[in-house]
Design a protein that fits this description.
The complex is a heterodimer of chains A (about 350) and B (about 240).
Chain A (H helix, E strand, L loop, with lengths): L1 E8 L4 E8 L2 E6 L6 H9 L6 E6 L2 E5 L4 E2 L7 E4 L11 H6 L10 H7 L15 H14 L4 E5 L7 H17 L3 E6 L2 H7 L2 E6 L2 E7 H4 L3 H7 L5 E12 L4 E5 L8 E4 L11 E7 L4 E3 L10 E13 L2 E7 L3 E7 H6 L7 E6 L5 E3 L1
Parallel strand pairs in A: 3-9, 3-10, 7-8, 8-9
Antiparallel strand pairs in A: 1-2, 1-4, 4-5, 5-6, 10-11, 12-13, 12-15, 13-14, 15-21, 16-20, 17-18, 17-20, 18-19
Chain B lengths: L1 H4 L4 H34 L5 H13 L2 H12 L4 H10 L7 H26 L2 H9 L4 H30 L2 H6 L10 H10 L4 H32 L4
Helix pairs in contact in B: 2-6, 2-8, 3-6, 6-8, 7-8, 8-11, 10-11
Classes of the chains: A alpha+beta (about 350), B mainly alpha (about 240).
């Protein structure tokens, strides 16, 4: 657990944060300059708060009153920077070995195979791709046997296509080591691919720290999400695959009665029963009062509106289809179709609108 | 004529050898100090930094004779420090081989510091943070990250200092004197030869050697920097 209670003066504003972060991945979301990175730097010891205290796994690493300030190198922190910060004069192998402790929770070979780094061990950082660089940085941090992992915008230096190559690795790591992992990002969809546990920071203050679906009910959180479309993130299991039709059928827990979702990712080989997360943008879903018959849309899920949250010119409908779906419709449609709490609706979305993270 | 040009007499060989020796010891002593000073100046902001910088750089802009005279005041036999060294170790600092090395150190130090400092400032300090986050102490970080990454600047600084030492004249003649075989380095030997009529060929000989040594040093340094740059190219 990380226990933070700090006041940190910055040039244009001050940061007041009092939070606890538990094992597992927590996404730290906020606009650039909101204080996300300052929070990570304070935990790591790269920035010194004026007041307060920080504990990592019950070890006090900073306390302004008691004048405790454990130096960076003794805080046992795995830190992955936006640009990877690999040492340019060392091979990938040497980079990975730089912080290795004698008693490491993961062995070198485990990390290399976990992150798929075997082919580039002898390469120099300048000759490998951005995704490989980030994976090396991640592996290097893991091999230093950290008590916690801090990732500062780990995807922004990597283009969108390559992000898909890093996210699964992060999830793998999360399953392998049970330590607190804080991931800072200003990209909500990226964070949701990793976790539903979010900590929202705005102008140096935490404005929400909860499950994503609960945060959708908070006005402060919604303000922070701003104009971004709200992403649905749903945990699913592979039910069966139909390669001929190019569809994979998923369900929330693999039972016959559960909601099935189809998506076209069958070029990737999933295994039946495999757990994965799918993402559908709230504005990629349409609502209908009846099931449509002559339509190309593959997914039609029946559900009941549990809540309608007004959001300026649009409304967010929370629909229970066996799991919660957030659907964004214009206020005008909402009014015209008499949408209200308890209304029965069909949620319609194309199979190509679904994004999958393994 | 050509034969004569390349037939060195003992005194001339001695002057060449002495110059190389002074320059070698000068680099050997000044370089580690300059690496520390350059790193310190590149990484720290403090009150009075400008004064420290000016003091270090003073010999670069002061007339070398002035530097030599100040050294004489500070380290000469009549000075507190000079007499202490003589009484304790029996070593006379002024007008000796040591004096030639000391004079060289003072005039080449600012050049090496400048070069090292620029190289240190070019390093992304984020890499040093990354090293410490991986559990490396400040000292390990310095030797494993900062010094290797600044190596091109350190080497070129060292070569610059070496070359500056080879060319040192004013401070040396003032503080170390012009003693054949002990403090008479190449430039002093050239100067001495110029004072004597009929030594034109000898003068030319030493001038040529001086040019060759400087040229080789510079070429080596350029080649090395290029090699290092291609090695650490990119991120």
């Amino acid at each position: 657990m990380i226990d933070v209670n700090i006041i940190l003066q910055r040039n244009n504003f001050d940061i007041h944060i009092k939070e606890q972060f538990h094992a597992g991945i927590t996404g730290i979301f906020g606009a650039s300059g909101s204080g996300k990175t300052s929070l990570l730097q304070s935990i790591a010891g790269l920035a010194n708060p004026q007041k307060g205290s920080i504990s990592i796994q019950d070890r006090e690493v900073f306390n302004a009153e008691k004048k405790i300030n454990i130096p960076v190198q003794k805080r046992k922190i795995g830190y992955v920077f936006q640009e990877g910060r690999l040492f340019p004069h060392m091979s990938i192998e040497k980079n990975l070995l730089y912080g290795v402790k004698e008693k490491s929770s993961l062995t070198f070979n485990e990390v290399v195979s976990l992150l798929n780094l075997n082919d580039i061990l002898k390469s120099r950082p300048s000759t490998i791709s951005g995704g490989e660089r980030q994976r090396t940085a991640l592996g290097r941090a893991l091999l230093s046997s950290p008590d916690i992992l801090l990732l500062d915008e780990p995807f922004s230096a990597v283009d969108v296509q390559l992000r898909a190559q890093i996210l699964p690795f992060l999830l793998k790591i999360h399953r392998k080591v049970n330590i607190p992992i804080l991931v800072v990002s200003h990209d909500l969809p990226d964070l949701l691919k990793l976790t539903d546990k979010l900590c929202l920071i705005d102008q140096g203050r935490v404005v929400g720290h909860d499950d994503y679906h609960k945060l959708l009910r908070s006005a402060k959180a919604m303000r922070l999400f701003g104009k971004n479309s709200i992403m649905n993130s749903i945990g699913m299991k592979v039910k069966n695959m139909d390669p001929e039709k190019g569809l994979t059928i998923l369900s929330t827990n693999g039972d016959e009665n559960n909601v099935k979702v189809r998506c076209e990712k069958s070029q990737l080989t999933y295994q039946v029963g495999e757990a994965l997360k799918i993402f559908i943008s709230s504005d990629d879903i349409a609502l209908s009062k009846e099931k449509l018959t002559e339509v190309t849309i593959q997914n039609q899920l029946k559900g009941k509106i549990t809540e309608i949250i007004p959001r300026g010119a649009t409304s967010l409908c929370l629909v229970d289809v066996g799991f919660q779906l957030v659907v964004e419709i214009t206020a005008e449609s909402s009014h015209r179709m008499h949408m209200e709490k308890g209304s029965e609706v069909w949620c319609l979305f194309k199979s190509v609108a679904i994004d999958v993270a393994g | 004529m050509l034969n004569e040009l390349f037939s060195f007499n003992n005194a001339e060989v001695e002057a060449i050898w002495l110059s190389l020796k002074v320059a070698f010891y000068c680099s050997l002593i000044a370089l580690p100090l300059a690496i520390l000073a350059g790193y310190f100046l590149a990484r720290n902001e403090f009150r009075g930094k400008a004064i420290i910088e000016s003091l270090i750089h003073l010999p670069l802009v002061m007339p070398p004779v002035t530097t030599g005279y100040l050294l004489l005041l500070a380290f000469g036999s009549n000075s507190w420090f000079g007499s202490w060294v003589f009484e304790t170790f029996g070593i006379r600092l002024a007008f000796s081989f040591q004096a030639a090395v000391i004079a060289s150190i003072f005039v080449s130090f600012p050049l090496i510091v400048r070069s090292v400092r620029t190289a240190m400032e070019m390093i992304d300090t984020g890499l040093e943070d990354a090293s410490r986050l991986l559990g490396a102490s400040r000292i390990k970080t310095f030797f494993k990250i900062s010094v290797p990454l600044a190596l091109p600047g350190i080497i070129s600084g060292g070569i610059l200092g070496f070359a500056r030492s080879l060319g040192e004249f004013g401070a040396t003649i003032t503080f170390a004197g012009n003693i054949e075989g002990e403090t008479q380095t190449l430039p002093l030997a050239i100067y001495a030869k110029m004072q004597v009529p009929g030594q034109e060929l000898g003068t030319l000989r030493l001038v040529l050697i001086s040019v060759v040594i400087s040229f080789v040093a510079m070429t080596l340094s350029e080649w090395y920097i290029k090699k290092m740059k291609s090695k650490t190219a990119g991120l």
